[in-house]
Design brief:
The complex is a heterodimer of chains A (336) and B (276). By secondary structure, chain A is an alpha+beta fold. Chain A is built from eight helices and 18 strands. Chain A folds into two domains: 4-233, P-loop containing nucleotide triphosphate hydrolases (Rossmann fold); 244-329, Nucleic acid-binding proteins (OB fold (Dihydrolipoamide Acetyltransferase, E2P), Beta Barrel), CATH 2.40.50. In chain A, a hairpin with a 3-residue loop joins strand 14 (273-285) and strand 15 (289-296). The longest helix of chain A is centred in the middle third of the chain and has 18 residues, at 170-187. The two termini of chain A are 38 Å apart. In chain B, helix 4 runs antiparallel to helix 11 (192-207) and helix 5 crosses helix 8 (151-162). The longest helix of chain B is centred in the first third of the chain and has 32 residues, at 68-99. Chain B starts with a helix and ends with a helix. Classes of the chains: A alpha+beta (336), B mainly alpha (276).
């Protein structure tokens, strides 16, 4: 039962003219037991924020609370947190079971208890057969499981994940997402997860925090962010392929997701739609659907058309935008 | 490809020739040293390798009638103790310089580095004055103290610790161990090649050290092997056969070190070439 609160956090590197502000006066409440994902492009400050919660970066302005306790001046080891690193950071000279048990040995846990916990974690993560191997003898996915095992045995109040899946290939990433999701429901602990991958954010999170340029752009559940993005940045970041933006005559921007664009002949609800004619530029066949990039008034628009249809580049195509799903943004990019 | 054909290419023949010449040049004095240790005094200037009058008298004399055993144990104690100190202090300083940020860090590093440019010959006079003022002349402490930290070792260890990713140390910090334990349990095991190389360099350097032990020690029971052997060489006469015998005996520990740590010393020399 541990919440994490960040109050007025600022962070900058360097001094004088070289000073770069990476986090700007940020407030965030992380609810106990929730799976919170910090997502944003590289350099947005998400990893720095996580490292500040871990105690690996010092806090010059603002306060961080873990539970009810202010942790600004508390060492990482006394914060009762565990962290999984992007490059695993398994101790290369120790075998798997010593890697997992290291934190417990450091805390003078009785030997029998260490053995028991290491065994349990091994079974939970399906790495029981690898206990005597060195990290160099493991595959990327296995290393990541060991890194998670090392976090689990400590039974921390808060789990921190720093882009844990970004060194894995796409298929393995999918598997590990499921492992992490299962872990969260089994352990029922607060987890804070940093990633630049919006698919990971959407699939794992109870709530997502989207960051850009050291600021929080929006906080919400995955569907809130998808359905009602607060600004153009969020709208463009969440969803794949990216939302289409069409500049209107009055300076406003119309945003429409590729999945909300249809072929005219497939579209029967005519209550609120906009019909356009555009020429086809690129066709990408995905199997169940086809991505068609068209040129409409010198704006590139991507439509996700279900099924496989025969299209030819250069052809004119009639499309319908479902205006019930359209988003509008003002000149500053804020949602209207 | 035929293996024999490959070994016959002219480039390899030239390389092997040079290596062979180098080996002969390096080995000749050592072979003569061993050869001389089995000769009587009057045959010493006769440069034949194998004498007809083969004798072990020199060995017996050296071990029974001189303090050679004492010198050997002095050398062993001083070399081992100094090596241990150098490994500990140099890696500690190197680690601190590589992994922590503090004011004046660069100045400290440059100061340590600049000591590399000062040869021992220049240092012995200040060392002597300091040792005299602290009453350390003719003591073990006086023999050992100047060598317990080296600028070279600090530099070597710093370079290696810089190659250790911070993530390991941060993971350990979160896992709950203190900074000194992180150094001992995580950082040090990751730089064992550098430690072995430094151990070998330091041990051999101290084993063969002559100038400072000669200056600081005056009583025979504090002599190291090189200083003790030098005492056989007088103004009018040198007992070459005893010097050669002592030198031959003194080679054995270094030979042993080499045989045991062979893979590391070769790696160590390569490292020295790159980083030193």
């Amino acid at each position: 039962m541990t919440s994490v609160s960040l109050k007025n956090i600022s962070k900058s590197y360097g001094t004088g003219k070289k000073e770069v502000e990476v986090i700007k006066d940020l407030d965030l409440e992380i609810i106990s037991k929730e799976f919170l994902v910090l997502v944003g492009p590289s350099g947005c400050g998400k990893s720095t924020l996580l490292r500040m919660i871990a105690g690996l970066e010092d806090i010059k302005e603002g306060k961080i609370f873990i539970g009810k306790k202010e942790v600004n001046n508390i060492e990482p080891r006394d914060r009762n947190i565990a962290m999984v690193f992007q490059n695993y950071a398994l101790y290369p000279h120790m075998n798997v079971s010593n890697n997992i048990g290291f934190g417990l040995r450091a805390r003078k846990t009785p030997k029998i208890e260490i053995e028991k916990k290491v065994k349990e974690a091994g079974e939970m993560l399906e790495i029981s057969g690898l206990m005597n191997r060195r990290p160099s003898e493991l595959s990327g996915g296995q290393r990541q499981r060991v890194a998670m095992g090392r976090a689990i045995v400590r039974e921390p109040n808060v789990f921190l994940f720093d882009e844990p899946l970004s060194n894995l290939d796409a298929k393995l990433r999918g598997n590990m997402r499921a492992v992490i999701k299962k872990l969260h429901s089994q352990l029922d602990t607060t987890m804070i997860y940093v990633t630049h991958d919006q698919v990971e954010a959407m699939t794992l999170a109870d709530r997502i925090v989207i960051m850009d340029g050291g600021n929080i752009q929006q906080v919400g559940t995955p569907m809130e962010l998808y359905d009602t993005p607060a600004n153009k940045f969020v709208a463009g970041f969440i969803g794949s392929p990216e939302m289409n933006f069409i500049i209107c005559e009055d300076g406003k921007t119309l945003g429409i997701r590729p999945e909300d664009i249809y072929l005219l002949k497939n579209y029967d609800d005519t209550s609120n739609h906009k019909q356009i004619i555009a020429s086809i530029e690129v066709i990408e066949t995905l199997g169940p659907e086809t991505l068609v990039t068209v040129n409409y008034d010198n704006t590139k628009i991507v439509a996700k058309i279900s099924g496989t249809k025969k299209f030819t580049p250069g052809d004119e195509i009639q499309l319908v935008l479902d205006m019930n799903k359209a988003h509008f943004f003002d000149v500053n990019g804020e949602r209207i | 490809m035929n293996k024999n054909k490959a070994s016959l290419n002219p480039k390899k023949i030239i390389i092997w020739t040079f290596l062979f010449i180098g080996a002969v040049i390096m080995m000749t004095p050592i072979i003569f040293m061993f050869s001389a240790s089995f000769k009587y005094n009057d045959q010493i200037y006769d440069l034949t390798l194998f004498t007809s009058d083969f004798t072990l008298d020199n060995y017996i004399y050296l071990l029974e009638n001189t303090d050679f055993i004492v010198w050997l144990s002095n050398s062993l104690f001083i070399s081992l103790f100094t090596t241990f100190c150098v490994l500990f202090f140099d890696s500690l300083v190197g680690y601190t310089l590589a992994k922590f940020q503090f004011n004046g860090q660069k100045i400290v590093f440059i100061a340590i580095l600049s000591t590399l440019m000062i040869p021992t010959e220049m240092l012995v006079i200040p060392w002597y004055i300091i040792a005299r003022d602290f009453g350390l002349l003719d003591t073990y402490l006086g023999l050992i103290l100047p060598g317990i930290m080296t600028g070279f070792g600090v530099f070597l260890m710093k370079q290696f610790f810089e190659g250790v990713p911070d993530d390991y140390l941060e993971a350990a910090r979160i896992d709950g161990v203190g900074e000194f334990t992180i150094f001992i349990r995580i950082a040090l095991p990751l730089v064992t090649p550098a430690l072995s190389a430094l151990a070998i360099f330091t041990f051999l350097g101290n084993w063969t050290a002559f100038l400072w032990p000669l200056i600081v020690s005056s009583s025979a029971e504090l002599f190291t092997v090189p200083v003790g052997l030098a005492s056989f060489s007088g103004e009018f006469q040198s007992d070459w056969e005893l010097i050669m015998t002592g030198a031959a005996l003194a080679t054995l520990p270094t030979l042993l070190v080499f045989l045991i740590l062979q893979r590391y010393i070769i790696r160590g020399v390569v490292l020295g070439g790159l980083k030193g």
